[in-house]
Write a structure and sequence with these properties.
Radius of gyration: 23 Å
Strand order of the largest sheet: 4-5-6-7
Number of helices: 20
Distance between the termini: 37 Å
Length: 468
């Protein structure tokens, strides 16, 4: 018995009509963690574990929840043993998004659409590995098969962007692969990371940094470098909204103190970060960049496993709810200082979706668009996406939503766009059939195309990328 059928998730007749439009729309992946080097070198994957499990902390969390030993997750077990451990639990992961995502990935890329509880695991492992050696499973081919037009990677401000440059020069690959400026650790300074941040910026800019103004100038120089290399966006993630009630003199004092290795409290660190972010945000606006904020996660909570495995390994939690007053104050501060660009905000806590979208409406005009981003991380489940779309529409304009992203390190994750599009089309289709939305093929088709692609094209305004 197969799970992925033509009417998977899309049960209504009108939803199926809308999905017939959505399914062939190209993908604008404006936030992901793909490696540009991997795309450029275009080498075959050795095993399914390498492409499917190696960097996926979603899957790792499931394996831990199932009681699988860490050696099968991030440890020294063979790729085959790790794969068989994961595939054994997958049939029991019902109601978790990985159940749907993994079935979609196997069906779309490998044409495997069977009951995984009945399948021979060793045979499946060998079959998948054999497939990966075929030309259609090379990284670039996987991207092309997924109908991707634009990829925006996530990059350290001091990255030389070598592989983005090489990809731009390679005329055999038509997909645009653009960098995104990710300055988290250069903005959230502490006495423990300030020396490394300064040193790396000094190397990248070939200039000496002694004072805060010189530090900010170096970051702005890197923004200019990224822009020249195709970047049209920044992205930053913080557990809390940064404080912005600080003077230039106070910020300079905090900077000097942490340079000297002295302790300052969390709120003053936030004020220093808020000052730095405000200053670089003026440069974002100068270049008409889209600015993304991922807000709320509490990261790396398991100290023992963090020390063993490292960051981004599945030890992160949904954070406390964001403060509406803090977010409004922060955006208002940027706005008053000519530092508010087109902005996408992704809260980690689903309880914040309504608040963030309502707050975004306070700062959206004909000049600047601020909006709630796609359901992120713990929220990109079927029910999470449905509720997110409802709350977006309730206090905003659903037709202007910038749509889905992968936020993934895996080239097999592009089925998340199919998943989102099926959910979106079914949600609208059911409301049409209930008489809550006028059945107008012209306007509904336009809305689907806009959410899936055109709104991102309009927002990012990348040369050579046109609406459909």
């Amino acid at each position: 018995m197969s799970l992925i059928k033509e009417n998977f998730i899309v049960q209504s007749e009108k939803g199926q009509d809308l999905y017939n439009i959505a399914k062939d729309i190209p993908i604008f992946d404006f936030h992901c963690h793909l490696d540009p080097k991997e795309i450029y070198e275009n080498k075959p994957f050795n095993t399914i574990t390498e492409v499917w499990l190696k960097h996926d902390h979603y899957k790792w969390r499931l394996m831990r929840a199932y009681g699988i030993d860490e050696s099968y997750i991030t440890g020294d077990k063979t790729d085959k043993e790790k794969f068989e451990a994961f595939i054994s639990l997958l049939p029991k992961s019902i109601m978790n998004p990985m159940y749907h995502w993994c079935h979609l990935e196997l069906a779309r890329y490998f044409n495997i659409n069977e009951n995984l509880n009945k399948i021979d695991k060793e045979q499946l492992y060998n079959q998948l590995n054999e497939s990966l050696q075929q030309p259609e499973f090379l990284p670039r081919k996987l991207i092309e098969r997924s109908n991707v037009q634009i990829i925006c990677t996530t990059d350290d401000p001091c990255d030389d962007l070598k592989y983005h440059q090489l990809l731009r020069e390679d005329k055999s690959f038509d997909v645009k692969v653009l960098p995104t400026f990710r300055p988290d650790r250069y903005i959230a300074l502490t006495k423990d990371n300030v020396e490394a941040s300064i040193n790396q910026l000094e190397i990248a800019t070939e200039r000496k940094i002694n004072h805060l103004e010189e530090y900010i100038n170096a970051l702005n120089e890197r923004i200019e470098y990224f822009h020249k290399n195709g970047a049209r966006s920044s992205d930053q993630s913080f557990a809390k909204v940064l404080k912005v009630d600080v003077t230039k003199d106070q910020a300079e004092q905090y900077f000097e103190l942490i340079k000297q290795g002295k302790h300052i409290d969390e709120e003053d660190l936030s004020r220093l970060s808020g000052y730095i972010l405000t200053e670089v945000s003026k440069t974002y606006k100068k270049y008409n960049w889209v600015v993304q904020f991922h807000l709320g996660p509490v990261r790396n909570n398991n100290t023992l496993l963090f020390e063993e495995v490292g960051p981004d390994a599945g030890f992160d939690s949904v954070g406390d709810m964001l403060s509406s007053s803090d977010l409004n104050r922060f955006l208002d501060h940027l706005n008053q200082n000519d530092a508010l660009s087109d902005t996408i905000i992704y809260p980690n806590n689903a309880n914040n979706h309504l608040m963030v979208q309502a707050t975004a409406g306070n700062f959206t005009s004909d000049k600047v668009k601020v909006q709630l981003g796609a359901a992120w991380w713990f929220n990109d489940t079927k029910e999470g996406m449905e509720q997110h779309l409802v709350e977006y529409a309730n206090v905003g304009l659903l037709s202007t939503f910038v749509g889905m992203l992968t936020d993934s390190r895996s080239l097999l994750s592009y089925t998340r766009h199919e998943y989102f599009r099926r959910i979106l089309c079914e949600m609208i289709g059911k409301r049409v059939e209930r008489g809550e939305i006028i059945d107008d093929d012209e306007i509904l088709s336009e809305i689907i195309k806009d959410i899936c692609f055109n709104n991102a094209v309009s927002l990012y305004n990348i040369e050579g990328v046109d609406a459909i």
